[in-house]
């Protein structure tokens, strides 16, 4: 089994949220698999949330509140984490910026770009 890393909840809102989620899960004596059971998410998704690398979807927050008995804590904090995650990006770009961090390859296409040799005038 891999060594568990401690989460520094002071670095950002998402890491604070993730650290609280891990604490509540461990306090309840649940594994990652047990907490996501009955949801549409996997343990790696939940692990990313606990480390502050991914934001928690609202439906998963509701599921966690129900399983952990946290009286809506995670559902109420979803919006705070979403706003904190946004940073300097426009709202429509938030998901793209988050996915870009995990991308294995990034390709760009620009229909207005004219390659150098074609720019030469006769």
TrEMBL record:
SUPFAM superfamilies: lambda repressor-like DNA-binding domains. Pfam families: HTH_31 (PF13560). It comes from the Bacteria. Residues 20-75 form the HTH cro/C1-type domain. SMART domains: HTH_XRE (SM00530). This is HTH cro/C1-type domain-containing protein. InterPro entries: Cro/C1-type_HTH, Lambda_DNA-bd_dom_sf. Gene3D superfamilies: lambda repressor-like DNA-binding domains (1.10.260.40). The lineage of its organism: Bacteria, Bacillati, Actinomycetota, Actinomycetes, Kitasatosporales. CDD domains: HTH_XRE.
């Amino acid at each position: 089994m891999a060594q568990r890393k401690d989460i520094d909840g002071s670095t950002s809102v998402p890491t604070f949220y993730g650290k609280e989620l891990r604490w509540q899960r461990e306090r309840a004596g649940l594994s990652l698999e047990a907490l996501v059971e009955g949801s549409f998410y996997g343990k790696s998704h939940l692990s990313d949330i606990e480390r502050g690398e991914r934001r928690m979807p609202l439906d998963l927050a509701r599921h966690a509140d129900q399983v952990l008995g946290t009286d809506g804590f995670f559902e109420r904090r979803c919006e705070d984490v979403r706003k904190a995650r946004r940073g300097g990006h426009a709202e429509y770009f938030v998901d793209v910026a988050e996915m870009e961090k995990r991308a294995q390859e990034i390709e760009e296409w620009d229909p207005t770009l004219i390659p150098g040799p074609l720019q030469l005038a006769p």
